[in-house]
Every structure is written in structure tokens, then in C-alpha cells.
Amino acid sequence: xxxxxxxxxxxxxxYLLDLAEELxxxxxxxxxxxxxxxxxxxxxxxxxxxxxxxxxxxAANLEIQLRCxxxxxxEPAVGLIAIQGELPQGPxxxxxxxxxxxxxxxxxxxxxxxxxxxxxCYAVSSPASETQEQLGAPFLQDIxxxxxxxxxxxxYCAAVQPGADNHKCAEIAKTGLLPPTPPIPSACLSx
Length: 191
Prior knowledge:
Layout (H helix, E strand, L loop, with lengths): L1 E6 L2 H14 L8 H11 L9 E2 L1 H5 L2 H12 L4 E7 L9 H16 L3 E5 L8 H10 L3 E2 L2 H18 L6 H8 L17
Parallel strand pairs: 1-2, 1-3, 3-4, 4-5
Helix pairs in contact: 1-7, 2-4, 4-5, 7-8
């Protein structure tokens, strides 16, 4: 199944569309019903489709983000939801952690997988690592590398289990059986 990508900006959406062909990613288009419901939730100033641009209204509101995750995840052709969001770094991020937790729980209830991705690389603090462990969801860094990893995992799952849904891919990825990936630049690594 395909990937539903949710970006915080139109620039991110455009970049993901460019990467889709290069990385052989499937971004299935949402149905007209889902498109209409997303439009209602987001209002003007967004890019409706897959990838989805949340626009200013959605980028600043975790409840709207959750609604869009639910709507994009409701599509049968979608097995993995990738939403832009940096790993919360400290106690001041408690509202974001709660919002991300709701997203993880809802996607899990839907029988699908979720991954968060950031626009660039950043250092990960000990509290952030604890938050990631608590949420139980991957937080990938750098859009290109994030979607390279997603492309590798989905291709691997398709090769190992033709017809498998992407929800099982997260389990496969945890086994360490994935083929080697390109080296990570030192700027993305932290002590």
C-alpha cells in the first residue's frame, strides 16, 4: 500500500512530489469525499492532495493535524502515514507530545503505521529520546533521507511479503534485516 505524506508547508509538499518519482514512492490520491473533508478542516491556503500541505491553519493546530491524519489514513490504498514533525525536546513540548501520542494511537487503531519526519537534522537530547521511546514511533530527520528510508522499507516489505501492508513493515524494520542504506552525514549524528 502507499504512503500518505503530510507536510507543514507548500514547499515541503512540492519537494515530496519531486522525490516521489525519484524514489518510486506511491502517494495515492485521496478520494473526493476525503478531499472535501480535508478542505473543510483546513480552509483556504492549503494544498489538498497527497502529499497534503496543512497550510498555516493546520500547521499550528494539533487537533486539525490529527483530523487530517485520520482522513488520509482512512483511504484503503494508504498503509503508512508520514507527517512532518520534529521530536519534542523538553517539558515545554508537552502539548505536542500529547498531540503526537493521539496520532500514534489513532493510526494504530486503524491498523496502519505512522512515522514523523523533520525538514532537516538536529541534535537529539536525552529527554527527546525518552519521548520517542514513550511514543513508540519513528522520528526521522531530513526530508530526503526520511523518504529514502521509507522507500527502502516499503520496497523491502513488498519483496519479502508481496501484498503485505505497511503496518507490518515497522516490525520488519525492527529486526535489522534491512539492506544497508547510504551513510548518514555527520551533521545528522549527535553524541
